[in-house]
Amino acid sequence: MEFLMATGVGALTAVGLYLILLRRTFPVVVGLSFLSYAVNVFLFTMGRLTIDKPPIIDATQQGYTDPLPQALVLTAIVITFGMTALIVVLSLRAFLETGNDDVTLDVTPEDEAPGENGAENGAKDREASR
Amino acid sequence: MTSSWIIAPVAIPAMTAAFLVLALRHSLAAQRVVSVAATVLQLAVAIGLYVIASDGELRTYLLGNWPAPFGIVLVLDRLAAIMLLLTGLLASGIVLAALGEWDKRGRHFHALFQFQLLGVNGAFLTGDLFNLFVFFEVLLIASYGLMLHGGGPRRLVAGFHYIGINLIGSTVFLFAAGLIYAATGTLNMADLAAKVPLVMQANQPLLAAGALLLLTVFATKSAMVPLHWWLPTAYGSTSPPVAAMFAIMTKVGAYSLIRVYTLIFGASAGPLADIAAPWILPAGILTLVLGTIGVLATRRIVDLVCYSLIASMGTLLIAIGLATEAALAAAMYYALQSTVAGAALFLLAGLLAPEKDSRVSFAWQTQYATLFAGFYFLLAIATVGLPPLAGFIGKLLILDAGRAASAAATVWPAILITSLLLTIGFARGGIRIFWKPSPSLEEPAQRAVPAGPVAVIAGMIVVIAGLSLFAGAVMDDLTAMAEQLRSPERYIAAVLRAHVTLNLTGE
Question: Are B125 and B9 in contact, with CB atoms under 8 Å apart?
């Protein structure tokens, strides 16, 4: 069981790290998701591995599982889910605006005018929201 | 009664931000009024909390009245009060500077700004490692929105980098929290401080791994070498008020370093005592050197400011790494002045290069050259550390604190030589900006000087001057703060005792 969990976390982390090191946005996003899976499983096992025990003190049962890691994992899952949604939207938007999904910063300052674009986009967005 | 006010710096921005998003979505004018009012209110609360905390006692706030090691606890000590005050001061200035021009370039600027304040204030107040993670995430989510504020392809790509780096940082934070929890069975900072010296031999490598992973997380946040490279890209691509606000975010990392490595893994941590100190000091020196090289190497004014921010973080990290009482007080003094100076420099960079790319707009240069050059001169003096402004006093205090340490042989030359190089870098930057012949003299575009940012920069310079004028009084307070930090048993007692008093009143 310990071996299974340890290799599982290790494999997920390795896959995540490999994908993050690629230079296109989609693999990076998937890699970040793998990393967050790894950390969720890791956190889950940090209250020690126990089987068939309730996460609460129960008079009818012998012993209990530490409930705190479960609460932590729940919070972490919610946060990473929000973050993943955000970075997916961002990478899509970056793809649509720059025309490629390269993560390198090869946009030269002369190619664009963030101020003016921003003002236009902001105005458009506000129009759309009305 | 007074302890209820501790939740206010978290509650006010949370409610304001929700109100701004839900009720005032369509009226920018109303958003501005509410946002400025809420920020000023937070400053008032921060001043009040600072006064409360200055009697040297630690106060706690138990959320939902759950007793300390089990529930969530907010702790107000001198360090937290000072950081709250700095945040309130900076935020009030920046929200005023953003009015009119920058907050209309995208939607929800004010709501995101308030959420960011929520995260920053919460991170300073929390007494729980996992909640520190949560508040980090809150301030980061808000900062992602702020960073992208205004749009543009360059900002999007830089934003992707920034978010990616911070997501990896968050993952590492969770790994570290998991390891520490596995070894100690708690994440409450006071409880951790009490339990870390008692951890059994077999679990100590686990705990050490957790402590050092935590160091990499805080190093990323505070732009410590080798984890500093994201900062110029991110801060250099975002809008000036946002970059100014981000100047406090590197200090959140520095704050966490001070908190965790004085309280939990400080001198009284048994076998793991001062586990991070041998890493922070050399990394700080390297950060300072690389930041200085960056200042010398850049062409854009925004990058100059970014690298000077890295250099000042290096100086701050050196002081934290020295880890004596005097060094901690000096570190905080330097942090106060460098945060304000950095924020003012970002705002000034936004005025000097308001359009398109970040090169100087020449029409503005001819009209307001004297004013802007004066600002640049004063802020450069403050950042570099020349007398009479606070940067000089801060560096002097750090040098003085480093005199006794065995590291003096490296700390002194590092700070002194980089100060000289920074002076050269800033002088070069000033020459490049203000002494260039203007090609557009014949068509000076008539633009009104933006009163908001100019007034705010002037105000920030006044704050820096005030810090130097009242350096003695400020240092007395900061020495008391460092004293409080060096005796973690009082923190532990204050937080865990809250448990007892609660039972008495609850029954």
Answer: yes
pLDDT in the model for residue B405 = 65
Report, as an integer, the average pLDDT of B332-341. Answer: 92
Q: Cα(B5)–Cα(A19) distance, rounded to whole angstroms? A: 46
Q: What is the pTM of this model?
A: 0.88
3-state secondary structure B18-45: HHHHHCCCCCHHHHHHHHHHHHHHHHHH
pLDDT digits (tens, 9 = 90+) for B15-56: 999 999 898 888 888 899 999 999 999 999 999 999 999 888
The arithmetic mean of pLDDT across residues B493-497, rounded, is 84
The answer to whether residue B111 scores a pLDDT higher than 50 is: yes
Show the tokens assigned to B180.
């520490």
| B140-198 confidence digits (pLDDT tens) | 989 988 888 877 777 888 888 888 889 999 999 999 999 999 888 888 999 998 888 88
Q: Does A35 touch chain B (CB under 8 A)?
A: yes
Q: Is A124 on the interface with B (CB under 8 A)?
A: no
Comparison of pLDDT for B331 and A100, the residue scoring more: B331
Strand partners, B62: B73
**At residue B73, what are phi and psi to the nearest 5 degrees?**
-130, 140
A83 and B163: CB-CB below 8 Å?
yes
B334 within 8 A of B315, measured Cβ to Cβ: yes
Using DSSP's 3-state secondary structure scheme, residue B331 falls into helix
**What is the percentage of chain A residues whose pLDDT exceeds 70?**
80
* Best A9, A37, A39, A104 residue to mutate vs chain B (most B CBs within 10 Å): A39
Name the burial class of residue B434, with classes exposed (0-12), middle (13-18) and buried (19+) by CB atoms within 10 angstroms of its CB: middle
Residue B500 has a pLDDT of 53
User: H or E segment at B60?
Assistant: strand B59-62
- B153: contact with A, CB 8 A cutoff: yes
Residue B160 is nearest to which of A91, A109, A115, comparing CB atoms?
A: A91
Secondary structure of B430-495 in HEC code, one letter for each residue:
HHHHHCCCCCCCCCCCCCCCCHHHHHHHHHHHHHHHHHHHCHHHHHHHHHHHHHHHCCHHHHHHHH
Residue type, B200: M
Nearest CA in chain A to B138: A79
Q: Could B156 and A90 be called an inter-chain contact, meaning their C-beta atoms sit closer than 8 Å?
A: yes
Q: Kindly report the nearest CA distance between residue A59 and chain B, in angstroms.
A: 21
Residue percentage of chain B with pLDDT more than 90? 41
B164 burial class (0-12, 13-18, 19+ CB within 10 angstroms)?
buried
CA B185/CA B191 separation, integer angstroms: 10
| Chain B partners within 8 Å of A103 (Cβ) | 157, 160-161, 164
A66 CB neighbours in chain B (<8 A) are 185
Nearest Cα neighbor of B302 from B239, B254, B246, B378 is B239
List CB contacts (< 8 A) between B185 and chain A: 66
Mutation target among B171, B242, B364 for the A interface, most CBs of A within 10 A: B171
